[in-house]
């Protein structure tokens, strides 16, 4: 490849067009200068806000210096893909139904890692067909990549006070993926922040995990507690979890910018196994084999069966008093796993302390 023979401005335009033809709603390009993001990350790590997520610091500066992660990288192509599978009013209603499981909307369908990785690989192949071989590497939330900071620099949106990337035309219900490349493409203008004085995401957080604007203490975050944490969920956070058994979308649900969010066009992101409406009792009764069968191809599978049952037990404990719930919980009261035992016993205790609902 001879860069001198390539019209880089035109190539950048073509890359964006190709990206959209592959299903990405937006494509941006940025350089690899992430010193500000590196400082913010280091402060966050020093405060211990990452909890048990040791992978956040074990790679050193590879996360904030792309050329250290993939040699030769001088630009990053950042892409976003919408995933909202249903109207937000329906999601809001489910959040208020204590006997149904709330699962973060990003994980209802097929594992996004695989789908977006394939699309990014296709994009790289199409670029290669135009200019010949070039250096690149595909990333989809699978390596030490500062994807949010990169997306902000690439103009895809700004990092909101809840730490998610926000776009004025699309809200925050989208995935991100990156191509690290060695082509000196022209870069896009970084997005400006538009949160203003709004604190809706901070105010709504059930566990007050957003400890300051743009700063999330993962140790308090329901997404961390239900997905990343492998041990016992601290008791102070169990009741605030409500019916959330995998992730939490409260901060996105209340964000004013999400009134502009569009439903996904990707069938793979639509709910599988009725996980968008399932009852807590039904999925608590899954055995380990059923769990792995029903979560095949899903991001949910990675938390494993023990965390799955742990999370549902907490949600059942938070539900209104119900003899059927107590009976269901008792089926796993003497489970061989101490984590399941602990959370089931806690849930039974919570249920027995509540007054039965009146039949009047």
Automatic annotation (TrEMBL):
One GO CC annotation: cytoplasm
Cofactor annotation: [4Fe-4S] cluster; cob(II)alamin
UniProt KW keywords: 4Fe-4S, Cobalamin, Cobalt, Cytoplasm, Iron, Iron-sulfur, Metal-binding, Oxidoreductase, Queuosine biosynthesis, tRNA processing
Gene Ontology terms for molecular function: 4 iron, 4 sulfur cluster binding; cobalamin binding; epoxyqueuosine reductase activity; metal ion binding
Listed SUPFAM superfamilies: alpha-helical ferredoxin
Residue numbers binding tRNA: 230
Name of the featured protein: Epoxyqueuosine reductase
Organism expressing this protein natively: Cycloclasticus zancles 78-ME
């Amino acid at each position: 490849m001879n860069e001198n023979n390539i019209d880089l401005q035109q190539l950048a335009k073509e890359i964006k067009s190709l990206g959209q033809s592959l299903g990405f709603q937006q494509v941006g390009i940025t350089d690899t200068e992430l010193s500000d993001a590196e400082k913010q990350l280091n402060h966050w790590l020093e405060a211990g806000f990452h909890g048990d997520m040791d992978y956040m610091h074990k790679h050193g500066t590879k996360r904030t210096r792309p050329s250290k992660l993939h040699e030769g990288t001088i630009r990053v192509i950042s892409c976003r893909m919408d995933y909202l599978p249903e109207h937000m009013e329906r999601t809001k209603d489910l959040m208020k139904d204590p006997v149904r499981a709330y699962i973060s909307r990003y994980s209802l369908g097929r594992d996004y890692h695989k789908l977006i990785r394939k699309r990014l690989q296709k994009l790289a192949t199409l670029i290669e067909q135009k200019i010949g071989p070039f250096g690149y590497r595909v990333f989809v939330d699978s390596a030490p990549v500062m994807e949010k900071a990169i997306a902000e620099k690439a103009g895809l949106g700004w990092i909101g006070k809840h730490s998610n990337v926000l776009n004025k035309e699309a809200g925050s219900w989208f995935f991100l993926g990156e191509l690290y490349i060695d082509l000196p493409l022209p870069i896009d203008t970084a997005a400006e922040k538009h949160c203003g004085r709004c604190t809706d995401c901070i105010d709504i957080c059930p566990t007050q995990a957003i400890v300051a604007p743009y700063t999330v203490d993962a140790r308090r975050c329901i997404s961390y507690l239900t997905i990343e944490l492998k041990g016992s969920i601290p008791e102070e956070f169990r009741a605030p979890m409500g019916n959330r058994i995998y992730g939490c979308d409260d901060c996105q649900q209340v964000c004013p910018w999400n009134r502009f969010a569009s439903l996904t066009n990707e069938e793979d992101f639509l709910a599988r196994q009725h996980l968008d409406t399932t009852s807590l009792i039904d999925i608590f009764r899954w055995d380990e084999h059923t769990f792995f069968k029903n979560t095949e191809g899903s991001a949910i599978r990675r938390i494993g069966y023990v965390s799955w049952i742990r999370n549902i037990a907490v949600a059942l404990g938070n539900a209104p008093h119900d003899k059927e719930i107590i009976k269901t919980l008792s089926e796993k009261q003497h489970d061989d796993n101490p984590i399941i035992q602990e959370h089931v016993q806690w849930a039974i205790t919570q249920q027995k302390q509540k007054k039965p609902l009146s039949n009047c």
